[in-house]
Specification:
Blueprint: E1 6-11, H1 16-27, E2 34-38, H2 41-50, E3 58-60, H3 66-74, E4 76-81, H4 86-89, H5 91-100, E5 103-106, H6 111-128, E6 131-133, H7 141-156, E7 161-171, H8 176-187, E8 219-221, E9 226-230, H9 234-250, E10 260-266, H10 271-289, H11 291-297, H12 310-315, E11 317-326, E12 331-339, H13 342-360, E13 373-374, H14 377-391, E14 395-399
Parallel strand pairs: 1-2, 1-4, 2-3, 4-5, 5-6, 6-13, 7-10
Antiparallel strand pairs: 7-11, 8-9, 9-10, 11-12, 12-14
Helix pairs in contact: 1-13, 3-5, 5-6, 7-9, 7-14, 10-11, 13-14
Bound molecules: NADP nicotinamide-adenine-dinucleotide phosphate (NAP).
Length: 401
Amino acid sequence: MSTRDYDLVVYGATGFTGRQAAATIQRSGGELRWCIAGRNQTKLEALRDELGLGQLPIEVADALDEDAIDKLVARTRVLLTTAGPYAKFGELLIAACARHGTDYVDITGETPWIRDMMDRYHAAAVATGARIVPFCGFDSVPSDIGVWFMVQQLRERGTGTVLVRGVHRSKGGFNGGTLATAMNLAETGMDRRLSDRRLLDPPETRDGPKLRADPRAAEYSAELGRWTVPFFMGPVNSRVVRRSAALSGLWGAPYGEAFDYEERMGFGKSGLGARAFTVGLGLALGLLGAAWGRSLLKPILPKPGEGPSEETMDGGFMKVDLLAEGEDGTTLRGRLSAKGDPGNRVTVALLCACALSLVHQRDALPGGSERLGFLTPATAFGQVLLDRMRAEGMTLELTEP
Ligand SMILES: NC(=O)c1ccc[n+]([C@@H]2O[C@H](COP(=O)([O-])OP(=O)(O)OC[C@H]3O[C@@H](n4cnc5c(N)ncnc54)[C@H](OP(=O)(O)O)[C@@H]3O)[C@@H](O)[C@H]2O)c1
């Protein structure tokens, strides 16, 4: 039995995803000493009433109040945070987790910021035994666990992996918090670092062989019988997958000698439509990158705290087709599918599955005590997470060509 007060703290619980995470943890059952936390006592009390959480403890600590964050984290085994933009509100939490040996999960997609956090706190987290696992939402669990699964499948057939291509399809909406986070990346200039192909690699592999550039054009996939276009989360997900591959290589279980991962989005049968979409995506990203563009977009986009309707979230879905090539020429195809919109239903289910893996199954996680510091979802959780995802109704399996 831990001497800490909380097995799990749901931090940022009053936000759009945080509320859903609190409700999911409440439904998860099992013995758990947990609380909801954030910066606003009144909002936290209202949430506790709304979710019927009885006398569940509430902890108030502003993300920018170092002393309050330190005290809360010191009393916690696993911290789950949805307070974003993370580059604005996340550093003191990560620093405190690294200092106190507290495990950490989040749903950031802010790769440049995580690069900075790794540079500052990885060594401290290893020293205290903390597992710091960012990217536990739609960015980047489906890509990371999907690729990990395909690599296992090829390994069982006796070959390493040269390349996996992931092709996403999904239906859902955007949260105001996500848009605020994308805006913050652009406003701070961090978005310029997104193109670094090994942005998240450990120092030992940063100078490795050149990897593929992010897709920029529409392309027909003969295997899938449809057009594909650049996926805006590809530059994030591919860096996470590459970190998983790099860490696995350092631990003696390489994905492959010259492994790489590329991500695209599935489109329909129209090449013209796919090309037009690609041009439109470039324009939208250009608009986000320019100060005048952001000032045009801000008033018409959802605000922090807002998000899609219950109907949109329940009616959404996500699928990733995974096309893998082995070093011996073997090709395999797989598919990961989940019901619900990617940014909320899927993200929250994944985030809570990751947190509960750390709370209830820490001893069953891969690598034992040697996997510490900044990990990826695949390297931190592997099969434990896949089992939880399947228990939540998600599927990941090989498919016929
Ligand atoms: N990986 C994925 O697929 C995925 C999906 C969805 C969202 N996200 C990311 O998750 C984050 C949250 O998204 P969301 O839609 O839930 O956003 P949101 O509704 O705007 O929630 C933000 C949360 O941060 C809290 N917060 C803001 N400033 C704070 C401070 N100084 N101290 C403590 N808490 C503070 C807010 O508290 P108040 O309620 O008091 O304002 C709120 O609880 C964003 O960064 C978004 O990009 C990722």
